Every structure is written in structure tokens, then in C-alpha cells.
Amino acid sequence: ADHIPLAGTIAISPAPMVLPQRMPSNLLVFSGQYEPAILHRAADALLKASGGARSRPDDFAQKRAFDLRKVAGATHTSLLLDRNIAHQSERWIMQCLFPTIPPETLALNLDLAPYAVANKGRHRLAGSILGLIGILFLFPFCTTLLTSISPSPRVEQLLDHPPYALSLTEVAVASLAGVLILTLGIPLNFLHIYSADYLLSLLLIVGTVLLVFNRKQLRENWPPRVSNAILGAVFGFAVFLAVGAWLNWQLDDGWLNAPRWLRFAAILPVTIVFSGSEEIVLGPVQSGRRRALRFGIFLLLRLEIFLACGLAYYELRSGQVLILLLAVFLAVFSMAQRLGADALRRRTGSLAAAILFSAILAAYFVAAVFPLT
Asked: Taking the chain, what is the end-to-end CA distance rounded to the nearest angstrom?
């Protein structure tokens, strides 16, 4: 927008940046109430540089209109799903394209046209979400069916795992050491995935440290049964291909294009290392309180890594703000990933199946969600 003449520009939660040489044509900026302070400052800097709000018809005609709209109760990502934001954006676009038509007339046309089918849109969204849930419910059934005719053991023979307190300490120390090491350079920077190259580098450091400290458990589980490993890989690919296809069809751009497939292949060895260390640390899936305790320890382990990323951003000036902005999505994915891996490990009794399943899903999530640079 700094170089190409446009009818108008809409910026949703603009990131901190060097101000453009000239303000983009007819710029509308949205800023959420609960965004990080640095993003609020970025939006205010655009307001100051533009000389204040201007939204008269002659401002649109001269392509110098500007408005900063701060949305109450909004987060960085909720703005993308807000129907009111979409409606305001459409009105701004119409004013950019037809500056001579009174804004009230444009608003009336918009209210009578696309928003007359608002209820239909809600029903379609509900159907898309229910369809996704239905797809996910198919996989436990298919896993149970396959393992019922498979000679694989249902219960793992090895019940030994490192003490949870020791594992929590190891992850905390490895995470803190990792963010300090990454101040010297990001080894996976060649992936060119914004913030994910940093996160993956940290996961690789933490996973390697855990495998070194728990090499005894690793040797006891090596080599894995090939049939179980294949089962885990098949289910991992089946889940993300089915979910990605449904998302791409109904809800979001969830299908990998060629550049993202290449990143997926490069990411997979890193996620295998981390998933392997995590499964060894957590130990076999049991039942009752022990299973709940195991799931709680898993959440604490992931939280320690996330807090290390937060510390690196606020204290070490890592610049990896996207990891913090995706906190809710990372948390939801982590819990879904753990539930799926535990279901597979419990039914197959296979550590290798759970590792490959988790690693494939993690590689897909990173390759699909994080932006390429």
C-alpha cells in the first residue's frame, strides 16, 4: 500500500513498523482493547502521522481519509471473526469506491443486501463446526476398530518413567537455557516461518536435552515395532488431511500449498524429537487420577515453554510476539493433540505410534498457521 495506488486500505491490528513514506490511500485502522500495548502504540503512531481522523466525502475522493477505531472487548484475533468489523469494513470500502454517494445511502444498501441473510450465515457456520466435530469423532472409533484386529498389546509393558518433579525441573531449565542460547542466533531461521523458526528451535533444544537426560528410557523403548509406527503415521496424516480439507472447504485456509508442504517436511524431524522426549517423560497412559495427573503435568510442561517465550519477548527482546498472540490457539491445539495421542497410545500400547501421531499433527499446525517470510 506504500507503493501501489489503491482505492483504500484496511489495517487490522497493524504490527509495529517503520512508518510508510506516504500514508496508504483512505486508511482505516482497527485496534482491539486487549491487544499488547506495543500494538496500541503502533496504531496511535499511524493516527499521529496521518494528522488525525478524516472521513468526509471529499476526503475519500482525494484518497486521504483516515480513521482509527478502537474496538471494546476485542483481542488480536477476535477482530478477524467479528461481524461488526466486517460490516464496518464493507461500509469503508463502499465509501472508497463511491465517494460521491452519500454514506447513508451506501449503509442502507449494505443493510438490505448481505446482512439480510445473517441467520443463514450463522446456520452455515454451526453446520461447518458440527461437521468438523463429527470428523474428529470418527478417528477414535477407527482406532479402536483397527487395534481390535491387531496383534499389538493393549497395555505397555514398560511402566517406568522419570519422576514428574524432575521432568518439570528439566524442562524449566532447558527452556530458560534455550531462550538464552537463541539470543546468539536462531538455527532454524532458514525455514523462513515467522516466529515458528524461533519456537521450533526452542523445542529442538528442549527435546534434545530431555532425550539426553532420559536416554535410559529411550534405549528401553528402542527399536519400535514397525507396524505400530506405521499405524501412528497413517492416523496422523489421516487426521490432518481430513481436518485440513474440511477447514479449507468450510471455514478457513487449512490446506497446505507447495511452500508449506516443503516446510512440513523440514519441520517433521524437529517435532519427532520433541514429541519423543515428551512421550518418554509423561510415561504410559493409565486411568483415573493418574491419567488426570499425567495430563496436568503435560499442561505444565507446555506452559513452562510458553512462559520462557514470554520471558524472552519481554526481557530479552526476542521480538517473537506472534507466539504470545497465538496463545489461545496453541493451548487448544496442545490439548487436542494430547487427547488424540493418548487415545492412540492407550489402544495400541505403542510409544512410537503416539510419537509419530503427535509429531505429524504438530508439524501440520506450524506449517499451516504461522506465516511464511
From this structure: 18
pLDDT digit string, tens, across residues 97-134:
998 888 777 777 666 555 444 445 555 667 777 877 77
What confidence score (pLDDT) does residue 113 get?
A: 53
Rg (CA), the chain: 24
Query: In the block, which residue shows the cell 505400530?
Result: 228
Q: Which residues contact 223 (CB under 8 A, 6 or more apart)?
A: none
Q: What are the angstrom distances between the C-alpha of 241 and each of 8, 55, 227, 235, 354?
A: 37, 46, 21, 10, 18
What pLDDT is recorded for position 309? Answer: 95
Please, are residues 305 and 171 in contact by the beta-carbon 8 Å criterion? yes
3-state secondary structure of 24: coil
Predicted pLDDT at 145: 66
Q: According to the model, what pLDDT value does residue 157 have?
A: 55
The three three-digit cell numbers of residue 283, written as one number: 510415561
Place of cell 499446525: 365
Whole-structure pTM value: 0.77
Q: Rounded distance, CA 113 to CA 10, Å?
A: 22
Largest CA distance in the chain: 77
Written as nine digits, the cell of 263 is 516446510
